[in-house]
Amino acid sequence: MAAGGGGPAARELFAEGLLQFLRPAVRQLDGNVRAVRESQVELREHIDSLATELCRINEDQKVALDLDPYVKKLLNARRRVVLVNNILQNAQERLRRLNHSVAKETVRRRAMLEAAGAYPGK
Fold first, then answer.
1. CA gyration radius for the chain?
2. Where are the membrane-spanning stretches (predicted)?
């Protein structure tokens, strides 16, 4: 090893340690994004149901109640929920690709270290 802080094997060990450190965080973030997406879908379904029910109530009322502004607000909220869900879906896909890249890089680095004899195999 060089006196200046380590050679290639030390850098490889550090890189692998960093990848091992990141992997659980990426997986946890992916799980959290998945849970938020599921709740967004549930919220969208509830908004749809409520909007439908408000329209039905409005039609059934003998007294003229103007529920249209509320229905429009619900539909606007639904649109925003769908937009957020699309953003989350894109983020989750990027996380999936990152997780795949981390796993692939970990395997590659471990193989390099094992080939160099600097990493004890499991």
1. 26
2. none
